[in-house]
């Protein structure tokens, strides 16, 4: 919700209709007279992340519903994963499957965010797996370390809790 609201605020603050003389197309339609299309925000995830929706006490069902109903998902599948089957087996996800977009990797890449986080927690290098700026951010904010994992252990994941701040 937080990022969506920020995107909307930025979108609405931009001046989309600043042209005094609307451009005419060959069909005579006024291109700049059309209403701007609101940006869409979707959760981009891998198939392994999608399957965390079934992990007990990790997600609240109402949060999953809000994500797939209001925003939607773009799920990248890897070799050996079948997110479409997982969606069909979930009553909630199958209800909103029209808002879940599956993307097949056309170049095999077996590096997953889950593996990156696991390596970071063990103190292993992830150089060349993710951008240097991301590595710097992770180090600066002390995330995905063994200590941060211990600190968060036992806490129910509340992915949309920023809305309440």
Automatic annotation (TrEMBL):
Keyword NADP listed: no
InterPro entries listed in its UniProt record: Euk_NMN_adenylyltrnsfrase (IPR051182), Rossmann-like_a/b/a_fold (IPR014729)
Gene Ontology molecular-function annotations: ATP binding; nicotinamide-nucleotide adenylyltransferase activity; nicotinate-nucleotide adenylyltransferase activity
Keyword tRNA processing assigned: no
Chief location category: mitochondrion
Keywords from the named record: ATP-binding, Mitochondrion, NAD, Nucleotide-binding, Nucleotidyltransferase, Pyridine nucleotide biosynthesis, Transferase
Location in the cell: Mitochondrion
Cofactor: Mg(2+)
Catalytic reactions on record: nicotinate beta-D-ribonucleotide + ATP + H(+) = deamido-NAD(+) + diphosphate; beta-nicotinamide D-ribonucleotide + ATP + H(+) = diphosphate + NAD(+)
Pathway it works in: Cofactor biosynthesis; NAD(+) biosynthesis; NAD(+) from nicotinamide D-ribonucleotide: step 1/1; Cofactor biosynthesis; NAD(+) biosynthesis; deamido-NAD(+) from nicotinate D-ribonucleotide: step 1/1
EC number: 2.7.7.1, 2.7.7.18
GO cellular component, one term: mitochondrial matrix
SUPFAM superfamilies reported for this sequence: Nucleotidylyl transferase (SSF52374)
Gene Ontology biological process: NAD+ biosynthetic process
Biological role stated in the UniProt entry: Catalyzes the formation of NAD(+) from nicotinamide mononucleotide (NMN) and ATP. Can also use the deamidated form; nicotinic acid mononucleotide (NaMN) as substrate with the same efficiency. Can use triazofurin monophosphate (TrMP) as substrate. Can also use GTP and ITP as nucleotide donors. Also catalyzes the reverse reaction, i.e. the pyrophosphorolytic cleavage of NAD(+). For the pyrophosphorolytic activity, can use NAD(+), NADH, NaAD, nicotinic acid adenine dinucleotide phosphate (NHD), nicotinamide guanine dinucleotide (NGD) as substrates.
Subunit structure and binding partners: Homotetramer.
Similarity comment: family membership: Belongs to the eukaryotic NMN adenylyltransferase family.
Protein name: Nicotinamide/nicotinic acid mononucleotide adenylyltransferase 3
Lineage, broadest ranks: Eukaryota, Metazoa, Chordata, Craniata, Vertebrata
């Amino acid at each position: 919700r937080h990022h969506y609201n920020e995107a909307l605020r930025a979108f609405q603050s931009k001046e989309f209709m600043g042209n005094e003389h609307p451009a005419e197309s060959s069909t005579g339609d006024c291109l700049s007279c059309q209403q701007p299309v609101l940006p869409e925000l979707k959760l981009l995830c891998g198939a392994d992340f999608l399957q965390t929706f079934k992990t007990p006490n990790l997600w609240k069902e109402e949060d999953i519903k809000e994500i797939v109903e209001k925003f939607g998902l773009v799920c990248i599948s890897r070799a050996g994963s079948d997110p479409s089957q997982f969606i069909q087996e979930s009553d909630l996800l199958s209800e909103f499957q029209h808002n879940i977009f599956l993307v097949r990797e056309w170049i095999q890449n077996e590096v997953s965010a889950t593996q990156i986080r696991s390596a970071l927690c063990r103190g292993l290098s992830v150089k060349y797996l993710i951008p240097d700026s991301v590595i710097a951010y992770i180090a600066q904010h002390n995330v995905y370390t063994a200590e941060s994992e211990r600190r968060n252990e036992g806490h129910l994941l509340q992915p949309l809790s920023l809305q309440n701040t």
